[in-house]
Input
Amino acid sequence: MCGIVGYVGEQHPKEFLIDGLKKLEYRGYDSSGIAIKNSDNIQIIKSTGKISDLEDKVNNENLINSKLGIAHTRWATHGEANETNAHPHKVGRTTLVHNGIIENATDLKNKLVNEGVVFRSETDTEVACAVINNYYNGDPIKAITEAIKTLKGSYAFGILFEDQDKLYAVRKDSPLIVGIGEGENYIASDIAAIIKYTDKYMLLEDDEVVELTKDEVKVYKDGVKIDKEVQTSTMTIEDANKGNYKHFMLKEIMEEPIVLQRTLNKYINDMDKMVDISSYEEIHIVACGSALYAGMIGKCLLEEKANIKCMTECASEYRYKKIIYDRKTLVILVSQSGETADTIAAMRKAHEEGIDTLAIVNVKTSTIAREAKQTLFIEAGPEIAVATTKAYLLQVAMFSLIALKAAHSKGLEDNYNEILKEAKSLPDYLRKVLNDKDTFAGVGKEIKDARDAFYIGRGVDYAMCEEGSLKLKEVSYTHSDAYQAGELKHGTISLIEEGVPVFAIITNDKIKDKTESNVIEVESRQARIYTITNDPSIMNHHFKYVVEKLSDYFQPILIVPPLQLIGYYTALERGLDIDKPRNLAKSVTVE
Ligand code: F6R
Output
């Protein structure tokens, strides 16, 4: 959600800035822009639409000589996606790009308008720019340090001052890293934008102000210079590229066996490394979107296997709701990016109440990874497609291990060792499913013209339905809904008509007969049934795919990839922009 890059060095910044924006495209955006400067001029070029549109515009302009610039992809929050609202914004001697939301922008704007400042755009960013400009009288560090005291909300800023040949940046609750090159330095929203140029980077804490020249990076806190550690990224250039795949989404699905192995290996040979949550009386699993659906699988496992009371709640509700913490409670936050604004707020709420937190996170440098009391890292590597696939799968796997450990600690799991053994074979079982990807491509072909689709299941199968349904709708724009199979006849069954695809997930032995009856109900209303199951004896209505039967802990891991592939291939059939579905952002850093 919004991306920032900045460059100072010996080259013209155009190539780095456009290339960096392309690498950040996955975060989601609807307009973009760059600002380049030299000691006499500043040149700003903006465009709506794709980065390629901006690139065309940039290529057709007479560019000034420059060795310094900033650029931005905007995901509209304040004001529509047009060129006026696109960043960079310039007020007086200050030009900036911004990721985040300035919550007191309206108040600040009214004050500034009364003081005679004229605003061109509807954005909170232009207000922030004016605030910094107001404080600026030749000392950038002082101006930024003073200005951020008056700004409420979240921000990562890349800033240029008309009379300085240096690049400035600051962040709070929005991601921004500093890349350290040779004879050039960079800022970027994430490492993917700079990995082609350097693997050395610095993390900025909230409200640390950074000043970059081509040879030097200086960081200040409250106006005082501080030392910062330089870190080395493990990301590779291949991670940031699609390789032989047409889309990152498919590449990332096909990577699932490898990343699963990498994640499981950390624990299955030494479960002492796994967090033991068996002493908690209540667990709250809080997350957004797919991460929440991974949590719903976690809840089923923790309740069924480890006998721990558990609830799931989406972070945007949890953060504002009255929560009664009357037992020994653990809040588990699940987040691929570790930067989701609502999940961060939910975590901080738990901390304010003195509640323990455990985060399941992919991005090690993220806010949630840094602030949670305990963290379990999934080893997904960079996930570039907006729709999560491999990270979701690993979140589920992490819950399988947490539940297994808790059940074992409580003496509730007689087959502990066999289940750990099963975990070792899991990547191979998964490979077998992914080898059948053409089968799911066939499903995509069949349902490509469907207007609606439904996913039904019970218990943990229902939790998987939610994810299957989300995957289909977000990438293929097919309307779809997930229902507990028994709920359908309480209203929704009126939508079932001839040919409507209904995906039934049936893995739970205890209640499979019940789901089968629901399947027959919809089939008798001419729905087209696609069954995904671990039981070969389940009836085949129109399509049936059977996966290996595993323990309850790990069964979901084989069911989810077919659902992801069905979403992918349906979108492919429809010729959509699969890695960057409309209106979506990879990392939702605003409320
Ligand atoms: C869907 C998807 C989103 C994310 C959600 C949470 O494919 O990717 O629903 O799961 O926005 O994001 P993180 O996990 O980064 O907190």
About this structure: The chain has two domains: 3-239, 248-573. The mean pLDDT is 95. DSSP finds 17 helices and 25 strands in the chain. The pocket of fructose -6-phosphate is lined by residues 288-291, 335-337, 340, 343, 387-388, 470, 474, 587-588 (CB under 6 Å).
